[in-house]
Amino acid sequence: MHIKHLSGAIVLAASIVTPVFAADPPKATLSGKDIAFQLPKGNCLACHSIAGGEQPGTLGPELKDMKARFPDKKELAAHIADQTAFNPYTAMPPFLKHGALTQEELDKVVDFIHGL
Amino acid sequence: MNKIAQTLAILCGLLVVTSPALAGPEEDRQAMIKHFKDSYPKMDQATFIHGALAFNQDALNQYKSIMEFPPYGEDMDKAEKLWNTPMKSGKTYADCLPNGGKMIAGDYPLFDNAKGKVVTLEMAVNDCRTANGEAAWVYGDPKTMGLLTAHLRTLSDGMKVNIKVEGPAALKAYEDGKKTWYARKGQLNFSCASCHVYGAGDKVRSEILSPVIGQTTHWPVFRGGTNLVTLQTRYKGCNASVRHVGQDPGHEAWNNLEYYHSFMSNGLPMQASIFRK
Lengths: 116, 277
Known about the structure:
The structure holds 2 protein chains of 2 kinds. Chain A contains 4 helices and no strands. Chain A is mostly helical. In chain A, helix 3 crosses helix 4. The longest helix of chain A is centred in the C-terminal third of the chain and has 12 residues, at 103-114. Chain B has a single domain, classed as Cytochrome Bc1 Complex, Chain D, domain 2. Chain B has a 3-stranded mixed beta sheet. Chain B contains 11 helices and 7 strands. Chain B has helices spanning 2-22, 25-39, 57-68, 73-84, 93-96, 121-131, 145-152, 168-182, 192-198, 231-241, 252-263; strands spanning 110-112, 117-119, 203-204, 207-208, 221-223, 227-229, 274-276. Chain A binds chain B through residues 1-4, 10-17, 20, 45-47, 55-59, 84, 89, 91, 93-94, 98-100, and chain B through 39, 52, 187-190, 192, 194-196, 198-199, 202-210, 223, 237-238, 241-243, 277.
């Protein structure tokens, strides 16, 4: 039941002292990578290692070989939209269900993550 | 028919009375110890009093070095002065608190059966104030309550956390605190346990998550050197991090949470006040 076993993206948790970009309002033109790397949107990097990202967290697994893990992109989207539907013990926020990401933002971040 | 009803009522009553013995606070604490033993078999859980620093020897060494000459020395001088300033009645806090305020912090929060609720050390301070002609302080205020407890809690350095949950009313408060600990909150849907039980020792960005065991032993902390933060202010901060608007310090839900939370540190030595980055 340890969180290390779970897949998906997670946002920040309690102990972040200096949230990077916390003061910046979200831009309308954020790319999928922006969303994955930055607060206050996806911030997947808070918990997952991602190629090209600095100071990744370790709460979730590294995001790589995603096409092999999720041949169907829709399945990956479903995990990011609401990981609690797959694992009730997950720490991963239900991004779409709780409105942390819009459908458009989710689509962008899924495209980016699926390409890793 | 009445007899059947009576028998059922008695049986139900017995179930209510006996079930806590099956999974009571001490069983919860032992399960927590086991969880961390399973997750980190090589770690000495006594080091958990250092929180996340227990997982990073370099950071722990830096902390120890900072603690030799802490940057909040002036604040501690003010705290001691505040502690020694008599209240309107002429009495001091040492006159009012049990044992002159020495070696008592480990007993708090305690369940006061007469009041029917959890009493934190901060509430005991406010009780002193109102009994001695002063207005109660706002809980979590760093300049008053926070500062006073920064000194008061140092008088219990080395005392072991000794929280007792005795009787059904105390158990109810403990269970309420436990429920809060495990309840998911906010847009990000985290519970306290998400990070500080299941995720403890892992990193969120570059920050290591501290384990629940040991967390209540060292408050208040001076974050970044001089920013005084009380335990319940930290609760509210944690809530904000998961995008939830939490209660203000002093709320009964926080008091019950602190009761449960402190019980998980039973037996560990206390040390106030300390540096955190």
